[in-house]
Prior knowledge:
cell membrane; pyrimidine biosynthesis; Dihydroorotate dehydrogenase (quinone); DHO_dehydrogenase; flavoprotein
Amino acid sequence: MYQLLKPVLFKMEPEKAHQLTVQGLAATLSTPGVSQVFRATYRFVDDRLHRKVFGLTFPNPVGLAAGFDKDGKYYKNMASLGFGFLELGTVTPRPQIGNPQPRLFRLPQDRALINRMGFNNEGVDALVERLTNQGRPGNTIIGGNIGKNKTTPNESAADDYVICFRKLFTLVDYFVVNVSSPNTPNLRALQDREPLTALLSTLQTLNKELATETQAAELGKLGQLRHAKPILLKIAPDLTDGQLDDILEIVKDTGIAGIIATNTTIAREPLTTDKQTVADMGMGGLSGAPVRARSTEVIKYLYEKSDKTLDIIGVGGIESPESAREKLNAGAKLIQVYSGMVYYGPGLVRDINKSLI
């Protein structure tokens, strides 16, 4: 069905088409009878797909990458497509409108997207309210991707991450620290060893404090202890081998749970789309098929340099069962999709999971 609608959607401005698609999904799933057929079509359930990573049990290894549902408006609907986990955000302490439109562009020849959204979101309080009121969809794992506001200087960035972490602590299963988006000025400078170590150490300290604080309050109610949450770091594909070595040292020094590799790239190669067309699109992060090879290289490098001990979520250019297995074979324990689903359709998750069985 998606392939029939795709030509119509691709004639629309990409951001508008995205909104129309997710709103249409929500309307479909609210229709009695239709929702059951939809779920039966797109979900593939098999106990052999279960993965235990970061101390969490994932129903399957295919997740929705951050950016698709920044504000948690559609996460229960997206769970119906068979994802094993959903990553919400990037969310910031205060609402922000992001960069001026147009800010999302398609490159159909390359099966790619360029975006400079700029962390547009309604703020962490709006996400907290939705998660509190709507709850979680079955056994699907929920992740919270957190960032800083554009107007917050880097020297105060930790304060923004702390605010989001504290407010989401009891509502998500894991956290992702996003310092690798190219669309917030100077954000990537936080990937340098000194500021990144300080930021992650601050969050790890808070993580343990919140686990201790909530433990006593929830022990009687739930009959189980509240544990510290896995903290992951999402990195750019544009890092050098030396910088990746630093990342491995930072993971070891701070004790975070793992890495998400990778975010979008500022590179514009290799592309078949006309260079002037690409230049006219302007700045932004490139995602989709052109990022596939570099993302896999980063995963393989980190996995092998860590003596195959690092837990990694692979993302970047996954648009087929074959490209999904490529990431897993390189060392990723879990994978995420976004741009590939725009071109392939919602059946991508089902087809990947089937191929793994």
